[in-house]
Amino acid sequence: MEKVISSLVQSFEKGKMTRRELVQTLAVLTLSGGTAAAQGLRVRNVDHASVLVSDMARSVEFYQRVFGFSIVSEDEENEIVRLGFDGQILLSLRHEATPGVIDHFAFGVEGFDAESATRMLESSGVTPEPANIDYGFHFKDPDGAIVQLSRVRP
Predict the structure, then answer these.
(1) Domain edges within the chain
(2) What is the 3-state secondary structure (H, E, C) of the chain?
């Protein structure tokens, strides 16, 4: 699964697919029903993608108009707006100087426990990065793509 997602992100970054095609493809992967169990981490879904944007109001309006998303939450201090449906975050927009980049994607892990997930990742040679996140953390894949693990949200 990681190779598939890495390949998708690389295709997007090289301009071979649009942001919309990337998000749609990730959604299809999520709905395909597969449950990955790597090192005891039971990935249940693609939780969200995070996109860097140059104009927050314009981007929020675009995703609301095109996909019907609503604002789920905002982090004004870090210039982040989280969009989705019925309280479920599907897309996180962050205002940055390098717009148009998928900053990271997040997997929802069943029974997520940061300490045991850290031990499992470290035993595989992966070092999670400390983050100020209530429900997960980040690490990099072999090509430097940022992956987030978090608890599966209801």
Answers:
(1) 35-151
(2) CHHHHHHHHHHHHCCCCCHHHHHHHHHHHHHCCCCEEECCEEEEEEEEEEEEECCHHHHHHHHHHHHCCEEEEEECCCCEEEEEECCEEEEEEEECCCCCCEEEEEEEEECCCHHHHHHHHHHCCCCCECCCCCCEEEEECCCCCEEEEEECCC
Over the chain (154 residues), the average pLDDT of each successive run of 10 is 72 77 67 45 84 94 91 94 90 90 86 81 81 71 81 73
Q: Indicate the residue type of 126.
A: V
CATH fold for domain 35-151: 2,3-Dihydroxybiphenyl 1,2-Dioxygenase; domain 1 (3.10.180)
Q: Would you say the pTM of this structure is higher than 0.90?
A: no
